[in-house]
Amino acid sequence: MDASVRDGETSSLRRLEAGVLERDAFGTSLAGLRVALVHDWLTGMRGGEKCLEVLCRAFPSATLYTLIHRRGSTSPAIERMRIRTSILQSIPGVDRHYRHLLPLMPVAARGWKPRDVDLVISLSHCVAKAVRVPVGVPHICYCFTPMRYAWEGREAYLQGWRDRPVRLAAARFLLGRLRRWDEATSDRVTHFVAISETIRGRIAACYRRDSRVIAPPVDTEYYTPATDAGSRDREDFYLVVSALVPYKRIDQAVAACSRLGRRLVVIGAGPERARLEAMAGPSVSFRGWQPDDVIRDHYRRCRALLFPGEEDFGIVPVEALACGAPVMALNRGGATETVSNEVGRLYDEPTTDGLVACLESWEAAGRPHDPARARGRAEEFALGVFTRRIMGLVGEVAGASRPAVPPRPHVTLDRP
């Protein structure tokens, strides 16, 4: 989600700022560790940047390598880092059209050559894992997904060129080269970490490598049920919180609620908004992007969150669960690892009809839901849980890579 940095940090983030979570869990075991961090690009504060933020707070003296950086677009903890950008940074207006520079990104990534480090950590969904690591230095890659355009998103990307055969052929050739390059650079990673079992499966399929799963953090100290939640019923509107782009399948939520005459509030922005508004019935309203406090308020009041897309993990459903909201989600992708029929409903058919059937059956059953169980499920993905797990892995890898200090030799002095 491309939301602005929240005004006023929660207590968990303030503790993280002070380094409490890291010190509590690991003491001084990582003191003095020389780390390089790598992130694809820094243009906003989304889920990936919230993962990066944890590492920036843990290793504030690390160098942070990235393709481009829009100053002020991320949190203070990231902005304070020593940030090194690529040759793409010099292109005028690059922070607005960097996605069109995909063919140049592998070339730009060649400039990432950390030196004098004990550990490299990349957070990658595009090219970050291609960082050139010194011989013998371990490289942990926190993988959001293998390069999307080269793998599972390839056909969707090519679909846009079907009416231009020459460009289609060129795009197909380019994506083929990118796939081969992406697969080859996976050898530069010593330890893969996946954000979900879904991504673990993709890493195995694309790179033929195993990985450990560490789910991204959700701020469960900010996203909480309303203080009076136990004394009132939820209101009569369904909710969508999402970027309005095709793969999110928000059109299915709009069509389902329009057909059923159910109120639907859509919070989000994107190129699909005009089309969605044109197809929406009178029961559907669009609010654009909203501040986090407005989103939290809607999580607390909605009848249920609708999540019809297939995501790599999906932070929005967990935020909703943290506020005690039921979640109606497609039974695919990361949502299958966070949502169950005990805290909402999973449905199998990825269509409007599938979502309509889900809503009708849930309503007919009396809208069963246990807010306490939903909250408990969300707490499994709390910021502190993520911090302990990712820092624990760092400690394991760094400890294994550091040679033991040889004991002081015992010298036997012969007596005269």
UniProtKB/TrEMBL annotation:
Lineage top rank: taxon: Bacteria
> Known InterPro entries for this protein?
Glyco_trans_1 (IPR001296), Glycosyltransferase_grp1 (IPR050194)
Q: Which residues form the Glycosyl transferase family domain?
A: 231-365
- EC number(s) recorded for this UniProt protein: 2.4.1.345
Q: Pfam families, from UniProt?
A: Glycos_transf_1
The opening ranks of the lineage are:
Bacteria, Pseudomonadati, Planctomycetota, Planctomycetia, Isosphaerales
Name of the protein described by the UniProt record: GDP-mannose-dependent alpha-(1-6)-phosphatidylinositol monomannoside mannosyltransferase
Supply the source organism for this entry.
Aquisphaera giovannonii
Q: Which GO terms describe its molecular function?
A: phosphatidylinositol alpha-mannosyltransferase activity
Q: Enumerate the Gene3D superfamilies for this protein.
A: Glycogen Phosphorylase B
- Write out the entry's keywords from A to Z: Glycosyltransferase, Transferase
